Structures are given as structure tokens and as C-alpha cells.
Amino acid sequence: MSIPMEFYLVVSTIMFFTGVYGFITRHNMLAILMSLELILNAVNVNFVVFNRFLFPGQMEGMFFSIFSIGVAAAETAVAIAIIINVFRNMKKIDTSEVKNMKY
Amino acid sequence: MNIDAILLMRTEFLLVFQIIFLIIYDLFASKSGRKGLDVVACSLFIISTVIGFFPATTGSAFGGMFVADAMNGVFKSVLNIGVILVFLQSKTWLNNEYTEHKKAEVYILIISTLLGMDLMISSGHFLMFYIGLELASLPLAGLIAYNKYSSESVEAGAKFILMAAFSSGMLLFGISLLYGSTGEAGLYFDTMRNVIAPRSLQLLGMVFFLSGLAFKISLVPFHLWTADVYQGAPTNITAFLSVVSKGAAVFALMVVLYKVFANLFDYWEYIIYGLVVVTITVGNLFAMRQHNMKRFLAFSSISQAGYIMLGMLAGTPAGMSSVVYYILVYTVSNVGIFAVVSILENKSGKHDIGDYSGLYKTNPKLSVAMMLFLFSLAGIPPFAGFFSKFFIFMAAAQMSYYVLVFVALVNTVISLYYYLLVVKAMFITPNDEPIAYVKTDFSSKLGLAICLSGTLLLGIVSYFYSYIQQFAYGLF
Asked: Which residues, other chains included, contact B277 with Cβ-Cβ below 8 Å and sequence gap of 6+?
């Protein structure tokens, strides 16, 4: 007995919107970064599931998710480097305290 | 891979060559050789820009993933011109004692960003599009956080990278939904165009995609990062962000909307309609209350993005050529303003509008140049900005968006007010301690001269618009 496609899609949608929620509500920059990872991984799940269930004859979704994993890693590397630099300059990475520039 | 594919991708290959060359040059050059790095980088880039103007072969490479047509070449040339102007004005900034040892990084990162933009513009497949988009935004975060010891710069960098990653996540989610509903033939633009239909999953995918790109163009509900990032980033990088990065995102969005989502025009028409109204109005209203010059220019560029989207909405060849023309004109005037701001900032460290009071007494040439650029942005007749706005309005009015054109016209009048506030500060407001006389170096002067001649000539000489027009294509 195999799990139908909709189940996977529900999981990925929940992951995506948890990520969006976390991005908006978290105050720690690293936690925001984790939420971003959640968003990107939801997308990967989507791609793989669509490919596996709907278009088993091709590999496009798989390739897309591989590229997206790679790019997400690069993105995290840059973001963490910048966050470390924020910490060096201000001794804090809480978004409610990193606010030199505001309206 | 044969010689034809290399010729198709000549702009990209030239950029890759420049990146590698600059890395090696930076590693092995002697101390005196490193002094010439700016000149070498600039002249290499100018050569590659000139090569870009020669008529190119059209076609597609990598099985349709990379598409080169004549319009893409025009897009790339416009972006190249913007990058040249940014290079010319950033020489003084780069040669101060804090950044002198790592100045090659700026050139390398800017060129890699440009490479990403070029790939994004001429992509024929969503995978290529996504990789180009990421290549265009990751190095940019490094550039924004370039001033390692300035807390504002790193704060701006953190804000930018988080927002960029979030927006590309949204965009990617949209692409994944599109893949699920139209994926049989793959994610190629020309095959997707035929299978796309107004079904709910595809509409949802389109909305996610649009909002992801709207972050990059900083249209209004997605604009909140713009002012902070523009203020915190080094001034020359802000110029790059506001002109080249925004322009590339606009071109990419235009290509995708015209090529892929043409069948859904009835739906994205309303989305863009709303975005235009809100973007122009909110950008204008917030620009009025800014005191920092860079924040002010951030909001001004937000409202300019609204005008650009207005031209895109028309969906005709005239709309497309007016958008490209508008971005060209906006490039020369906005980079010109940023050049003046950065010249003054390098010397005095001041960038508040209030600090510019009485500037005309001490720096008459710079203030006159700045005034002309501001007039061009505001759209006062003899300058190029008037003609670009006129073409945009004409393209939109031809498709009978009369209400929208009226809103945009009212907003043009409002924008005149705040652009003139800066002019008034420079020429009329008395000040006991204006910014002292600043000596402008040669490369900034050259950049300013190009910008000035651009603002004066682009509108009057009709050659430029008709050159762009011959390649433009519309929605249908």
C-alpha cells in the first residue's frame, strides 16, 4: 500500500507556511534562517513528489530540487557569514535590537 | 558545445573571463600593479560592453535553456552601461585606506552579479532562471555588507540576505506549483506558454512567482527592506542596487510575463494594476518625509519602479520599448545623483538633505549637475526623464488605462515637490557651514559627464528610442 500524493503535499504545504510564520515571528536571526530552510525544503518536497507521482518518465523535478539544495547551502553560508559579522559589530543578533536604521 | 553556442553566449563568456582574470590579477599583481586594477577592470568591462553592441546571432543553446534574441542583447547592454557608470564613480571610494586591499572583490562581485542577471534575463527554462536569480542576489549581499566595520552596512547586509532568501523561497514555491500542474513538457518557457491556463493551482503558482520577483523590484507591499538596505549599503553599491539590480529584475519579470504567463494576462493585469497604484503613491508619500539622502532616493526609486511597471502593463511592443528606454534614462539620472552623493560623502561623510544647504555656494558644478539629474527624474521637459515618462504614459494610454495614467500623472506632480526640496536646499536655503569645496577626481568626472550627456541627449536624439523599438515584442 503506497501513500497517496496528497499526503505529501499537505506535509510540504504545512512546512512552507510554518517557515513563513517563523520568518515573520522569530527574533533571532539564526531562527529566521532555519525558517528559510524550512521554506526551501518544502519546495524540494514539492518538486520530488510531483516528479515521482505525476511525471515518472522524466527527472526534471529531481534536478530542480538538487540545484535548489545546492543554492540553499550557498545562501545559508553567505547569510551565516553576514550574521557573524553582525554579531561582531553589535554583539547581538536579535532583530528587535539590530535596528540602527528604521523609519 | 560548438562555436555557435559560444557566440550566442558571448556576453556571459566575456563576464566569466573577466571574473577569472581579475581573480588572478588580484592574486599575482605587484603593489604598483594593484594600483592600476581599477583602470584594468574598467577598461576590460568597457571593451566587453562595446562588443555587446555588435549585432548578435540569435538562437538557443543547451537544449533551449538559454535563449538569445535581439531584445535580450539590448537588455544586457542597458545593464552594462549602468555597471560602467557605477565602476567609474566607485574608484575614489575603493581607494581609501580601509578598502584599498580588497577592492578587487567589488569588481569581481559586481561582475558575477551581472553574470547572474544576464543568465536570468536570457533564460528559457525556470531552472536557469532560478540559478541566475540566486547568482544575482547572493554576491549582492556580500557587496552590501562590504564595509566590515560599519554596523549599518552589516545590518543592511543581514536584512538583504534574509529578505532575498525569503523572496526566492516564495518564487521557488510558485515554480513548484507550476511544475506540478504543467510539468509534462518540462519547465521550458515556450512549451509552458501553451499549456498554462487559468486553473487555480497555476494561478496560485503565478501569484507566488510574482510576489517573489516583486521583492526584487521592491514594489510596494514588498518594499520594506528597500530603504534600510539602501541607507546602510556603501553609496556606490546603493547606486548599483537601485539601477542595475532593479532593472534586471524588471527585465526578467517582463520576459516571463510576456513569454510564459501570456494566457493569464486577464489575471495578472489586475495584480500589476493594483501594484502600480500603490507603489507610485506610497513611494511618493514616504519620500517626502525622508531626511537622509539615500533613504530619500530609495523611496524615489520605489515610485520610479511603479512607473516602470505601468509600461509593462501595456503589453504591447511600445510598452516594452518604453520600459527599456525608461530604465536607460533612469540609469543615467539616478547613477548621476548617486555619483554626486558619493563624491560629497567620501569627502565630508555627510548625506542628509539638510547638509546640502548652501551647496551651490561652495560646489556650484556639482549642485548644477545634481539639479539636472533631479529634474530628469521628476520629468521636466527638455531632459530625458520627460520623454521616458511620456512614452510610458503613451503606451499605457493606448491600451486605455486612462485612470491609471491619471493617477501616475498626479503622482508626477507630487514627486516634483520632493525633488525640488533638494534643489531648494542646495540653491536657496542659507547655511553658515555648507560642505566645503570638494575636488572631483577624473573617473567620477568622466562618469558624471556621461550621465549628464545621457540626461540631455537621450530624450532629444530620437535614435536611441527607435533603436530599442525595432527589437521590441509584445504579449500576443
From this structure: B306, B404, B407
- Residue A102 located in a structural domain: no
Q: Which residue in B156, B267, B281 sits closest to B209, CA to CA?
A: B267
Cβ A7 vs Cβ B140: under 8 Å: no
Residues of chain B contacting A29 with CB distance shorter than 8 Å: 158, 162
pLDDT on residue A92:
87
Alpha-carbon gap: A56 to the closest alpha carbon of chain B (Å): 10
The closest of B241, B140, B238 to A78, measured between CA atoms, is B140
- Residues B124 and B188: beta-carbon distance below 8 Å: yes
Contact state of B127 with A67 under an 8 Å Cβ cutoff? yes
Under an 8 A CB cutoff, do A74 and B134 touch?
yes
Within-domain flag for A100: no
**CATH number for the domain harbouring residue A32:** 1.10.287.3510
Number of domains in chain A: 1
Task: Say whether B161 and A78 touch across the interface (CB within 8 A).
Answer: yes
Q: For residue B295, give the nearest of A69, A100, A45, A64 by alpha carbon.
A: A100
Model confidence pLDDT, tens digit, residues B156-213: 999 999 999 999 999 999 999 999 988 787 889 888 888 888 889 999 999 999 999 9
- Name the residue ranges covered by the structural domains of chain B: 3-469
B417-466 pLDDT, tens per residue? 999 999 998 999 888 888 888 888 899 999 999 999 999 999 888 888 99
* Block residue for cell numbers 521550458: B188
Q: Report the residue from A43, A85, A102 with minimal CB separation from B154.
A: A85
Question: How open is the CA angle B340-B341-B345, to the nearest 5 degrees?
Answer: 120
Secondary structure (3-state) at B291: coil
**Could you write out the DSSP letters of every residue in A79-100?**
HHHHHHHHHHHHS--BTTT--S
From chain A, the residues in CB contact with B141 under 8 A are 78-79, 82
Residue A85 belongs to domain spanning: 5-90
Residue A71 covered by a domain: yes
Whether residue A21 is contained in a domain is answered as yes
Cβ contact B126:B71 at 8 Å: no
- Longest alpha-carbon distance in chain A: 57
Assembly ipTM: 0.95
| Residue B427 exposure: Cα atoms within 13 Å on the Cβ side | 14
A71 touches chain B (CB under 8 A): yes
**Which residue on chain B is closest to A85 by alpha carbon?**
B154
Residue in B152, B158, B173 nearest the CB of A43 = B173
